[in-house]
Design a protein that fits this description.
The structure holds two protein chains of two kinds.
Chain A (H helix, E strand, L loop, with lengths): L1 H28 L4 H8 L6 H10 L6 H13 L13 H36 L4 H15 L2 H15 L11 H31 L2 H8 L4 H38 L5 H11 L2 H29 L11
Helix pairs in contact in A: 1-12, 2-3, 5-6, 5-8, 5-10, 6-8, 7-8, 7-10, 8-10, 9-10, 10-11, 10-12, 11-12
Chain B lengths: L1 H14 L11 E6 L16 H7 L4 E3 L5 E3 L2 E6 L5 E6 L13 H13 L8 H5 E8 L2 E6 L6 H5 L32 E7 L3 E6 L12 E6 L3 H9 L5 E5 L9 H10 L4 E3 L4 E7 L9 H10 L2 H7 L6 E2 L22 H10 L12 E2 L2 E2 L1 E7 L3 H15 L4 E7 L1 H10 L4 E3 L10 H6 L6 H6 L5 H13 L3 H17 L3 E7 L1 E5 L3 E2 L16 E2 L2
Parallel strand pairs in B: 1-10, 17-18, 17-19
Antiparallel strand pairs in B: 2-3, 4-5, 5-7, 6-7, 8-9, 9-10, 11-21, 12-21, 13-19, 13-20, 14-20, 15-16, 22-23
The chains are: A mainly alpha, B alpha+beta.
Chain lengths: 313, 528
Amino acid sequence: MLRYIARRIGILIPILFLVSVLVFLMLRLAKGDPAMAYLRLSNIPPTADALEEATRMLGLDLPLWEQYLRWAGRALRGDFGLSWVTGQPVLGEILYYLPATLKLTGMSLLLTLVFSIPLGVLAALRRDGWADHLTRAFAFMGVSMPSFWFAYILIFIFSVTLNLLPPMGMGGFAHIIMPATSLALMSTAINIRFLRANMLENMHARSVLYARARGLSERRVIWGHVFRNSLVPVVTSIGMHLGELIGGAVVVEMVFAWPGVGRYAVMAIFNRDFPILQCFLLVMTAIFVLCNLLVDILYAWIDPRIRLQGDRT
Amino acid sequence: MRRIILVIAAACLLLFAAVPVWAAKTELIFSWSSNAGPLNPHLYSPSQMYAQAMLYEPLVHYGDDGSAVPWLAERWEISADGKAYTFYLRPGVVFSDGTPFDAKAVKMNVDAVLANAGRHTWLDMINQIESCEIVDAMTVRLNLKNAYYPMLQELALIRPLRFLSPSAFPEDGDTSKGIIAPIGTGPWVHTDFRKGEYDVFVRNERYWGPKPALEKITVKVLPDPESRVIALETGLIDLIYGAGGHAAGQIGLEAFTRLARQGRLPTGVSGPLSTRLLAVNSGRGPTSELAVRQAIQHAVNKDLLVEAIFLGVEKRADFLFAPSMPYCDLGLAPFAFDRAKAEQLLDDAGWALDPGKSVRVKDGQELVVDFCFTGNDALQKAIAEALQGELAKVGLRLNLIGEESDSFLRRQKDGEFGMIFNDTWGAPYEPHAMVGSMRAPSHADYQAQAGLPMKNELDEMIGRVLLTTDEEQRQELYLEILTTLHEQAVYLPLTYMTSVRAHNPKLRGVEFTPMRQYIPFERMYWAK
């Protein structure tokens, strides 16, 4: 098990290296002119002198590989440079905004589980009943509705019309309800259908037939055998949902003025603030990969049928 | 199972118990797309101009009619050669920390800005200041390299020449590396902020002028204009104020006109602040012909644009600078919308429309003009498409080139365009600074004018107008410069840009000023 974990962490290094090269190249090769962006953001008319000065100041006159090496060298020491807009250290800024995003995605993940598990089970148990049809309709809607649209609908109903919930900002518990709900919608919808399918499949498993033959109560068959076995793939899918939630947070934070790292990144995209984007993408990649690693470990731990290659020596 | 559902439903109901809090009546809640920033008066982004204007004050203010209004300087004298400006400072002014505002403080600030002159090359005023001398405790003199008439207008700028308390200077006096605290003489003091969430300003109890009625202004960070509208409608903020209708705006035009139509909240639109226009390249492609440029002027139905795209929020523009700008009320005849005349001009110039064709041809060359805009700017795109339709009706094809904003700016600079968006800068830059920049090759203006036969004479006149000390001669020169540019049709003015406001019905005194970035919070108050 330990070797497996070590190996997985080892893979993280080349992944981050590749991502860093890709991110760096994508931003540089995109048509555009960072020096011009810098001047525009500073409200300085772009004279030839000013442009030259900005180019030199930002190191844009160096060859691409040298720019990368300088950046990567510093990044390895935890120095991701200064934001072109605020002049603040980028890593510090991102770490400052990260907790708000983790709070939001954590809450959304919780909501996803709290809603999708009972609804998924219900849909499976009442197959082709009204509960199944209703959850199916909900799932279709949830998957097809963009989160920002759902967010505006929520705001319209609960803030503008009913005046029940604060429409934006971070504060008490009331503030997180709508952002977390709109963010959780898609994962919940997917998870309901996923769990339902697993449950139905497991109901026909031989172990279940045997359990019934042993005369176990229906309750024990469903919860002890069908449900538990159906949860295992759900655990794996959480890893995928995490990516979805982190990605979705970018949009949802914008709508709800949630002071998280996603909104910060959107502003950086508008501003073409390269140092922030580079750092943001790397940090998010690291978080995503680490979460998936955790999920995989959890998965291996829950399900004894899974034998890990690295374990057998 | 049913029990679980019931518990969840009950929990949901409990969560809805929260109720939004309404503003107390001495506090105003505003919103901005980002935090106010470090608020160094001598530097630029990320400090926000609205906030710099709240904290720091100039020697001379830009009056509502464009004249220079005494501010921290009570009065001034200009030497006969126009090279020495003596300012008599207002007595009894202190910075918000109690430090007196005197000649020494002025000199410290001017010297700090001059020490970092490289950062301010875009502003001619800074290049023109040679030195600042202390005449006596409350009198300073600015010595200029040349007579430079817009000096007073540019002193009114929000940055970089406003005054920081000497107590807030770093030890070596070099403010370009940072300041100790944002302390000015203005009516507001920046007391608190939380990154990504809000900034708080409170009234400066030591302010020399009339005390603002409001005690506290909280500025929430709301980058998304749609969210801002919801925040106003739900009472989370009290005021929307600023540019409308584009990416950097406070509010989208659709949302604004909806608020105005509903009439539940007071709304308003300012007078012209600057001009939204297209530079037409006289040095490249078919537009190098005067007849083609004139035809374009006559072929565009601007009223239609105003109605369909700007929803009436911006007004039709006929001239490069709004006649309300200093020296710009010239009585020129606008190019009227007249499609037949446009066709006539093109016919006469030899651009023939063959039967069955949609594009005119002359000497085997098609009448195609490159139209450059920022691809993700929805407003520019809409204008581009509307103009494409308008000009197609006279047989001119616009080749739309929508690009990422920095490539677009690069085109402005390099002259790689047929027509390109090129808004004017607004007060206090109009007309002098904008006209001055027409001589710099890095501007779309220069590029658009480069093909004019009288470009050298134009540049020479611009040089003279900025240095002359004779008011009459100045007006005459402006008349000549602006008339030439108008007749040569190197600009297609579309609309005069405006600011908009929408606010809580109880908020009063929400006024517009000629300077777009200056929000006069000190004039606002709550109705009883």
